[in-house]
Design goal:
- The chain is of the alpha+beta class.
- It has helices at 9-23, 33-44, 52-55, 92-105, 119-122, 127-136, 139-143, 150-160, 164-187, 224-232, and strands at residues 71-73, 78-80, 86-87, 107-109, 112-116, 204-208, 219-221, 237-240, 246-248, 264-265, 276-284, 295-303, 312-316, 332-337.
Length: 339
């Protein structure tokens, strides 16, 4: 698919609309179509950025150590085999696929894939909140972009072009497809041993669970056998499913960890702002009220504020006074119980 980058703004938007609708469903929680359209439009300047013609990269996705394709050097405007620069895609379609995969699977901590970098954005309820949460999680820094008015600029593009209408169109299309399935099932004789609802494709990731900040994702695939075979060849690696649960090695094979295991903070908590807290396989909750923890973490974290709610307090990845105590919610990892 080719985009229109030499015409009007509306022509460009019309050329990316189908891709935005298609790939908004590629995240584990749907990304609003308007957000995908607004981001690609803003970052690529309506497709007019000089790198687009050479890269098909509307989001300026950066190459990392695992990238095996060509790289666009932004200093020399040349295509290179390796190096630090923009990923070069063979199509715009591949660019959208890679970007939404990154947003939905990128871990906040390299050694712990259970905590997603953009999880708060993916769980937001509006396109404004989604973009705000992207910004709070450090999206601009990761993409090596600079714009203090990033949130306002992207939201303005969405509002000025009424891209929020695309969200409703996508929802209506989804409902229409579902109604077609229901109508079809009414006309077909259903046998008890036949499943009538399609099974959603599972995604598996092979990731190294080590301390350190190097990127360690080896593979993303829908084939579990393929993921396990690769995992066996790389000691220390684990296979995670789409919900970030370890599926190989499983507990009976001596791998993984259970969130229901009894575990504690390794040292008494001093509830003072910025105080270091040592965790040792400690259950961490997303909020004060969640009934079950979402991860079991070890390492050094810090008191984010001195609030205790429902017997829990929030922890941060930093004790920087400019980040904690309500100044930057993006540094919060979750809540732990305080006895």
């Amino acid at each position: 698919m080719e985009i229109v980058n030499n015409g009007s703004h509306q022509e460009f938007l019309d050329s990316i609309k189908d891709l935005c609708i298609k790939y908004s469903n590629n995240t584990h929680n749907d990304m609003p179509v308007s957000v995908l359209a607004g981001l690609s439009t803003y970052i690529s300047d309506y497709g007019k950025d000089k790198s687009i013609k050479s890269t098909n990269n509307l989001f300026k996705n950066r190459a990392n150590k695992l990238w095996s394709g060509k790289v666009y050097n932004t200093d020399t405007d040349t295509i290179e085999d390796t190096g630090d620069g923009l990923k070069v895609y063979d199509s715009i379609d591949t660019c959208f696929s890679d970007f939404t995969e990154y947003i939905s699977t990128e871990p906040r901590f390299p050694n712990n894939p259970n905590i997603l970098k953009y999880e708060n954005a993916l769980e937001s309820n509006s396109y404004e909140d989604f973009i705000n949460e992207l910004y709070a999680a450090g999206f601009l820094k990761a993409a090596k972009l600079r714009d203090n008015n990033f949130v306002d600029n992207v939201v303005n593009i969405i509002n000025e072009n009424k891209l929020y209408k695309w969200d409703k169109e996508a929802l209506d299309m989804s409902k229409e497809e579902e109604n077609k399935k229901i109508t079809l099932s009414d006309k077909v004789e259903i046998k008890e041993d036949v499943k009538t609802s399609p099974k959603k494709e599972e995604i598996f990731r092979v990731v190294l669970d080590l301390d350190g900040d190097k990127e360690s994702k080896l593979l993303v695939t829908s084939n579990l056998d393929e993921a396990i075979e690769l995992c066996k060849k790389h000691p220390g690696y684990k296979v995670y499913n789409k919900d970030n649960h370890i599926v190989y090695p499983n507990l009976s094979e001596g791998g993984g960890s259970s969130l229901e295991d009894e575990s504690n903070v390794s040292s008494p908590i001093i509830l003072q702002l910025g105080t270091a807290v040592e965790l040792d396989s400690t259950p961490v909750y997303r909020s004060y009220d969640d009934k079950l923890p979402f991860a079991s973490l070890s390492g050094t974290f810090y008191i984010y504020d001195t609030i205790i709610n429902n017997g829990r307090t929030r922890l941060s990845i930093t004790n920087n006074p400019n980040k904690i105590n309500g100044k930057d919610p993006g540094v919060i990892i979750g809540c732990i119980e305080v006895k």
